[in-house]
Automatic annotation (TrEMBL):
<feature type="domain" description="EamA">
    <location>
        <begin position="145"/>
        <end position="274"/>
    </location>
</feature>
<dbReference type="Pfam" id="PF00892">
    <property type="entry name" value="EamA"/>
</dbReference>
<feature type="transmembrane region" description="Helical">
    <location>
        <begin position="173"/>
        <end position="195"/>
    </location>
</feature>
<dbReference type="InterPro" id="IPR050638">
    <property type="entry name" value="AA-Vitamin_Transporters"/>
</dbReference>
<dbReference type="GO" id="GO:0016020">
    <property type="term" value="C:membrane"/>
</dbReference>
<protein>
    <submittedName>
        <fullName>EamA-like transporter family protein</fullName>
    </submittedName>
</protein>
<feature type="transmembrane region" description="Helical">
    <location>
        <begin position="201"/>
        <end position="220"/>
    </location>
</feature>
<dbReference type="InterPro" id="IPR037185">
    <property type="entry name" value="EmrE-like"/>
</dbReference>
<keyword id="KW-0472">Membrane</keyword>
<dbReference type="InterPro" id="IPR000620">
    <property type="entry name" value="EamA_dom"/>
</dbReference>
<feature type="domain" description="EamA">
    <location>
        <begin position="8"/>
        <end position="134"/>
    </location>
</feature>
<keyword id="KW-0812">Transmembrane</keyword>
<feature type="transmembrane region" description="Helical">
    <location>
        <begin position="144"/>
        <end position="161"/>
    </location>
</feature>
<feature type="transmembrane region" description="Helical">
    <location>
        <begin position="257"/>
        <end position="277"/>
    </location>
</feature>
<feature type="transmembrane region" description="Helical">
    <location>
        <begin position="232"/>
        <end position="251"/>
    </location>
</feature>
<keyword id="KW-1133">Transmembrane helix</keyword>
<feature type="transmembrane region" description="Helical">
    <location>
        <begin position="121"/>
        <end position="138"/>
    </location>
</feature>
Length: 285
């Protein structure tokens, strides 16, 4: 695969991942759809898109995926949706990314990964950035939404860790989306008294599931084999930045000093950890 194609595919994948935050916030803020219905439509459309991709490539789902990963996927999607009832898209994306990476870094520490002093400084900066973002104040995010988004990030971090080394990641992801369908249906049934949906909200949720999630993951998996581990890890640092810029352009969100400083601390700190960590793994390979 040519470098230009790899770069283009990577950029498209990062834009797709950032678009999830914009689509969810846009739907829950500007349409009649409720968070549970958004979650169900997103998971159903993602399952459909991924299953079609597997089928078009001549593959089979079979027993792809597993229930524990599907539970983590559902927990992420549900908490993500309910968090965006109150959170701005930019803040939500930053909290999500910080929680995902912190979860995965914490797992590395727990399993014996040795950190250099620069990595510990980076981790401290990232955690300080998260703490600073959550401190009380006029521009602080709503605490309920913040807790939900941090939970979504932890769930996605667990899902990502469980998915490492999957033989066919697209098929595995499709299988997990399919298994998450009854879980999302149960959530919608439990919240049926508050159910509300309109055409615009439905299509935002469908785009989030089929395009930003399903096709986005497929594009990412296509580019991933051509990327070095360090590059694959660090390029994801741009997702909250894209989401923040997109929120300012399409949702009219303002860039506060708090989110700028928190972004610098969180993304810069995680960058210090991940670059050193993944570079070391490259040398061992």
């Amino acid at each position: 695969m040519s470098p230009v194609r790899v770069t283009l595919l990577t950029l498209l994948a990062m834009v797709a991942f950032a678009a999830n935050s914009l689509l969810c916030r846009l739907a829950l803020k500007g349409t009649e759809i409720d968070a549970a219905s958004f979650t169900s439509v997103r998971i159903a459309s993602g399952a459909l898109a991924l299953s079609l991709l597997v089928w078009l490539r001549g593959g089979r789902l079979g027993g792809a995926g597993n229930w524990l990963s599907a539970l983590a996927l559902f927990a992420y999607a549900a908490a993500f949706s309910f968090a965006y009832l109150t959170l701005p898209a930019s803040t939500g994306a930053l909290l999500l990314f910080g929680a995902v990476q912190t979860t995965m870094i914490g797992y590395g520490i727990r399993t014996g990964e040795r950190f250099a002093s620069r990595q510990w400084i980076g981790l401290a900066c990232a955690l300080a950035g998260l703490a600073g973002l959550l401190l009380p104040g006029l521009s602080a995010p709503p605490p309920g939404g913040a807790v939900l988004m941090l939970g979504a990030g932890v769930a996605w971090g667990i899902y990502s860790l469980r998915g490492k080394g999957a033989g066919n990641p697209t098929a595995v992801t499709a299988g997990n989306f399919l298994r998450a369908l009854p879980l999302s249906a149960a959530l919608s049934a439990a919240m049926s008294a508050r159910a509300s949906i309109d055409c615009a909200g439905f299509w935002y949720a469908a785009a989030s599931g089929a395009v930003a999630s399903g096709i986005g993951y497929a594009i990412w998996y296509a580019a991933l084999p051509a990327l070095k581990a360090g590059n694959a890890a660090t390029v994801q640092l741009c997702v909250p930045v894209i989401a923040t810029l997109g929120a300012a352009v399409f949702l009219g969100e303002s860039l506060t000093l708090r989110i700028v400083l928190a972004s610098a601390a969180i993304l810069g700190g995680i960058g210090l950890v991940v670059v050193r960590l993944e570079t070391r793994h490259d040398r061992r390979a």
